[in-house]
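FAQ: What does the model actually see?

It sees only this:
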Amino acid sequence: MSRIVTMTLLTSTLLLASAYTKADRIHDMQTMAEAMGKIQMGFFYNNNDLVQEGSLTLSDTIRRVKPPLEEEEEKDPMTRFMNNKVRMSEKIVKKIDNKAAMIIQRFNEGDTHQALQSFSKITEQCMKCHTQLRDW
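And it is asked to produce this:
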């Protein structure tokens, strides 16, 4: 009996500990803003190390970002369908991750124009999320 209680407590603790909170989201957004600044600084100084470090940080951080819990747990099918925020968030995450990899590749190849275009596309995705999904 005590094993069952212990396992139940342990499982619930792990589930609660892994929830993605608003504080986690704010921290990740700040980390991504710093990463974007580092990438931009790397462009200005023609510094591959800064571009790579910023892009990798951005890519690692964007993979952790999740939609707010109330969006993921929306019970009303019509509201979930109309809002479509979870799927749209997932698409934005994928696009930003792909563009961050593109920045690294293009900048390494010396194609700074294409790397800068990828940076611009990332900025567009950030603004899309903040304006359309988060009512910024």
